Amino acid sequence: MAKVSIIGAGSWGTALSLALNKNGHDVTIWSIIEDEVKMLSEKREHEFKLPGVKIPQEIEITSDLEYSLKDRDLVVLAVPSPYTRSTAHQMTPYVADGQLIVNVAKGVEEKTLMTLSEIIEEEIPQANVAVLSGPSHAEEVGRGMPTTLVAGAKNKKTAEYIQNVFMSQVLRVYTSPDILGIELGGALKNVIALAAGTADGLGYGDNLKAALITRGITEISRLGIAMGAHAETFYGLTGIGDLIVTCASVHSRNRKAGYLIGKGYTMKEAMDEVKMIVEGVYSAKAAIGLAEKYEVELPIIEQVNKVLFENKNARDAVEELMLRDKKIEVSGLPW
Questions:
Q1: Is 189 one of the annotated active-site residues of the chain?
Q2: Alpha carbon distance 69, 92 (integer Å)
Q3: CA–CA separation, 245 vs 187, rounded Å?
Q4: For helices 299-309 and 267-274, angle between their N-to-C axes, nearest 10 degrees
Q5: Is the distance from CB of 141 to CB of 19 less than 8 angstroms?
Q6: Predicted structure pTM score
Q7: Nearest to 193 by CA among 244, 235, 124, 135
Q8: Short-list 207, 309, 274, CA closest to 301
Q9: Given the residues 3, 22, 157, 189, the one annotated as active site
Q10: What is the DSSP secondary structure assignment for residue 72, as one 8-state letter?
Q11: What confidence tens digit (pLDDT) does each residue in 207-263 have?
């Protein structure tokens, strides 16, 4: 049995706490929001983000950050990506040398172009930082539905430890050394999902969605490889797997936001309607910054940015993608 703390009581943090509890671990959930702590403690349910999913009494709920981090075998950092840096900064005084922190959020910081694990390492240099990602909606994990994830770490022993802690008959966990590839896949698929949702909102069909998914993973892998990640990662669970589920699922907040934009909502109106953090909006500008830095072409992500931040008409964005210069699909193949 491991002593585990979940830092962040949103839908994903809550769902993972349930999975860990079922595996027999000693689990604590931390939230900075006192009303949320009260609700979870009294109702034993996240009424807004994971309604109908009960939290067992043995899972402890607290707002005491120092208590949450002291003597824990594993800390799961599950706050939305825009709050990763500030939360990690608050955690720093209480994290022991070598303490394992597993980031499960997805995003890239717009101002610095840093991945979330890089942010955590900068703010908490004494920590052993790893990641856990994959095609995994909290609504399904919280209800014990079969799901697969990938644990990424700098050394095999750490990855296998995370695998052992989380693995169960309904949660299958693979291991990987490619932390960068895992995080880029998780962050940038949200931007492509905004495009896929927008296409749905515009009334386009499955053909375009398939094209956006396929060409989207090409863009993500093109950038990732330029940054030093491994191509194989983007064609696995944390690449194409996560991209498919986020572009297609009714649970996807990024797809939903895109759908609303396709229906004529502004970016802000869509985010307000979703009522949860739409990670793709925050990662979209960062993706363009990375593309410029590494001199990589990302036409779909570029059009998403223009629709989000330059008020470009979504139909015009689709037309511009369709009428780009003629290309060969896969370069280097012999005729």
A1: yes
A2: 10
A3: 14
A4: 90
A5: yes
A6: 0.95
A7: 244
A8: 309
A9: 189
A10: -
A11: 999 999 999 999 999 999 999 999 999 999 999 999 999 999 989 999 999 999 999
